[in-house]
Write a structure and sequence with these properties.
Blueprint lengths: L9 E8 L6 E2 L5 E9 L7 E4 H5 L4 H11 L9 H5 L3 E7 L14 H14 L3 E5 L12 H17 L6 E4 L3 H10 L3 E4 L9 H9 L5 E5 L17 H18 L7 E4 L8 H9 L12 E2 L5 H7 L8 H13 L4 E4 L2 H16 L7
Helix pairs in contact: 4-5, 5-6, 11-12
Length: about 350
């Protein structure tokens, strides 16, 4: 394809050192970009051109996408790390008996509260509290049971002095409502507001006086069926288009993109090849104009490639995948192993920016 053929439907900024001559800043991160890949469905290979050449095409949609990739991002729920260009760390607290990696370790409220404080001490910027496993094949949990798991933990964390933002990992509106009332700040919905028809109504209610932040994730199907035989026309572009549509839904509900994390949903209705394609092409999602989250921690594809059958033994591979995502400009990484991830990010950030300074 050549630029003159104008079959471009998407554009992916190609990250580089921010200090290189002519580099545009990449979405408020420590990186820049001087070139973009012009993408279209059915392409054998994208065309890579300088940013100036792409904007000179005079295509308003293309120019707007590049502008969104270059715009800074507001710190979601006060995540100060994002204001400095350093990726933020979301620590996982699964209050479940059956999560794929740590199910049963923290399904008691007191243990979960203690674990949350431990993750905060390890350097987490935000905690994600979940009461329903969404691993492949998981059985849905009744919302009332989900609430009985997570609400005492959120209340206990606030009662015992946790100041960090709290995310509630739920697909269910009544769980989200109770969590916000208990002190949560962000709704992390793996269905991107498609599972529970009452979720949009909840958001409309809250917008007027205390709008929540959101994380909207792509998933193909529900947890019970999503890994049976996932298929895409073009996984990178299909996931992008889904997230664009869901971000528009959030905006229509009154939540601006500055308050919405977009997550491509690694492992949620994706095979090994799909996961790798999404991580390799992750920088395309900057043209959505929203801050980006990636959750790869201890997932099955890491064990498949790294030869680690047990989830708890996949920390090194999780770090490797997260560090690659950092090189693509991710804003938030969602992880089990907070201390190890924070250490790795500190080194990455110091080497990338050339200045160790006050990193965390």
């Amino acid at each position: 394809m050549t630029m003159s053929e104008r079959s471009v439907t998407h554009v992916r900024p190609l990250p580089c050192e921010a200090a290189l001559p002519g580099a545009w800043r990449l979405a408020g991160t420590a990186l820049g970009f001087r070139e973009v890949a012009l993408l279209g469905r059915g392409q054998e290979r994208p065309e890579v051109v300088p940013v100036e050449a792409a904007t000179a095409l005079g295509d308003p949609a293309l120019t707007a996408a590049i502008g969104r990739a270059a715009a800074s991002r507001d710190p979601v729920v006060g995540l100060s790390a994002m204001a400095t260009g350093r990726p933020a760390v979301m620590g996982i607290v699964n209050v479940t008996p059956d999560s794929f990696s740590d199910g049963g370790l923290y399904d008691d409220a007191e243990r979960a509260i203690a674990h949350g404080h431990e993750l905060a001490k390890d350097g987490a910027d935000i905690l994600d509290i979940g009461g329903e496993s969404t691993r492949p094949g998981a059985t849905p949990v009744p919302p009332e049971e989900e609430r009985s798991r997570v609400i005492p933990v959120i209340e206990g964390l606030r009662r015992t002095g946790l100041k960090l933002p709290i995310s509630i990992d739920t697909r269910n509106a009544e769980t989200a409502r109770a969590a916000l009332d208990a002190g949560a700040d962000l709704i992390n919905d793996v269905s991107a507001l498609t599972h529970d028809p009452r979720m949009p109504d909840l958001i409309r209610e809250r917008v007027a006086f205390n709008p929540p932040a959101l994380c909207l994730m792509h998933a193909l199907g529900d947890p019970q069926t999503m890994q049976l035989d996932p298929r895409y026309s073009d996984v990178l572009l299909d996931v992008y288009d889904f997230l664009e549509q869901r971000l528009q839904v959030a905006e229509d509900l009154g939540i601006p993109r500055s308050r919405v994390l977009a997550d491509p949903g690694i492992g949620f209705g994706k095979n090994l090849g799909h996961n790798l394609a999404l991580i390799r092409g992750f920088s395309i999602f900057h043209t959505l104009g929203a801050p980006l989250l990636l959750g790869v921690s201890r997932k099955r594809f890491i064990g498949t490639i790294g030869g680690a059958s047990n989830g708890a033994s996949r920390m090194p591979g999780s770090l490797g995948a997260s560090l690659f995502a950092l090189s693509q400009g991710v804003h938030v990484v969602r992880v089990h192993d907070v201390a190890e991830t924070v250490q790795a990010i500190r080194l990455w950030y110091a080497l990338t920016t050339g200045w160790p300074g006050e990193l965390i």
